[in-house]
Amino acid sequence: MVKLIGKHILLGVSGGIAAYKIPELIRGLRERGATVQVVMTDAAKYFITPLTLEIVSGSPVFNALLNYTSESEMPHIKLAKWADLIILAPATADLLARLSIGMANDLLTTICLAADAKIAVVPSMNQQMYRANITQKNIKILKEHNILVWGPDEGKQACGDFGPGRMLEPLSIIELAENSLSYKKDMLKLHLAITAGPTQEDIDPIRFITNHSSGKMGYSIAQAAAERGAEVTLISGPVNLSTPKGVKRINIISALDMYKQVHDIIHHQEIFIGCAAVADYRPKEVIKEKIKKHKDEINITFIKNIDIIASVAKLIKNRPYVVGFAAETQNIKINAQNKRIKKNLDLICANDISLINHGFNTENNALNLFWKDKEVYLSYSHKLVLSHRLLDEILKSYEKKNKY
Ligand code: PMT
Q1: Maximum CA pair distance of the chain?
Q2: Would the CB of 276 count as within 6 Å of ligand 1?
Q3: 349 tagged catalytic
Q4: What is the value of pTM for the model shown?
Q5: Which residue among 150, 157, 201, 255 sits deepest, i.e. has the most Cβ atoms within 10 Å of its Cβ?
Q6: Cα–ligand 1 centroid distance for 220 (angstroms)
Q7: Which SUPFAM superfamilies does the record match to this protein (predicted)?
Q8: What letter would DSSP give residue 372?
């Protein structure tokens, strides 16, 4: 349900009876994570009120082309740059005609001319108007200009006619939006192993020590990489998340399990990302029987766990590109760079967990990326969006290193 997270969808509504379905479309797009802004033509306001669309979209509705006080406010330029996808629904015969000849006589058509984003029209009109040669010619022209045409459906029409011209149902429009915004397959043929979540280190048959990792960051990276065509293996500690589509998941409990599973597959990986919060220590001995509560104090000796990522970065043969994570509360850059150097990583991604709602068990995050000779800040956003930005950076530097 989150395929549209972080996507900006501009919905252009023109004056057709199907406008009554637009609140359902907006709700569905928002439920899947998109931010929706609405632009209405004058005629659309006869079919549905701007107030309704303002309430369901959670944003002001735009209509006026020339109602601003400074150049920086020019809504047609701002909205055109903002949009990842423009959906015109319902798109009347008049709107299709105006678009096909490049008119810019209202806010919506002006935005379409000024936008670099994909544009999809969802025709909605009487069947005879749709069948008219001139409408068909206009649709052909739109297609030649790389404008997507979604639909129409065929069936009983509001006017009583039967035929093609019904607007696609909101769910179909949403599915088409998801497909058209899916990421380019720029990681085909790449094998990626990702560790995620916490490890649990047993104390006795009842108790263990662990940490606050929810697995969300690592799972998001796995999902993003799979969306881009990579072959992804996710070595996961105990978390409450479902496996992203197309990802091979290997469940582990302890750091030692994780070490073993990573080394079982590492020789076939081009990229390794250590996002797990591995327990640094484990009890020297796992007590066989339940520790009884009669003592006021108990002592447990902990020994250091093996450093999984450092062991991967040490490989001489088939060493992958190695990316580590660091959760830091202070001196972010110095601490993260020291970790990168000590573990011989290509890149380290530092979370500042002193900030509220960053890092562990959150939906959103921000990352500071540190290479030997470069740093990049990825601003606060949903972990899936952040993961795609992170993969953009990893790919650039991986390609540079390997001339892949
Ligand atoms: O799971 P979430 O709730 O979404 O939270 C994400 C996260 C905060 C856990 C994640 O973004 C993160 O920062 N993970 C690393 C946490 C950390 O501080 O790790 P570290 O400093 O202990 O280790 C540094 C690197 O070495 C990490 O890549 C870690 O996976 C790796 N490591 C550490 C110890 C060890 N024995 N083996 C390892 O491979």
Answers
A1: 90
A2: yes
A3: no
A4: 0.76
A5: 255
A6: 15
A7: CoaB-like, Homo-oligomeric flavin-containing Cys decarboxylases, HFCD
A8: S
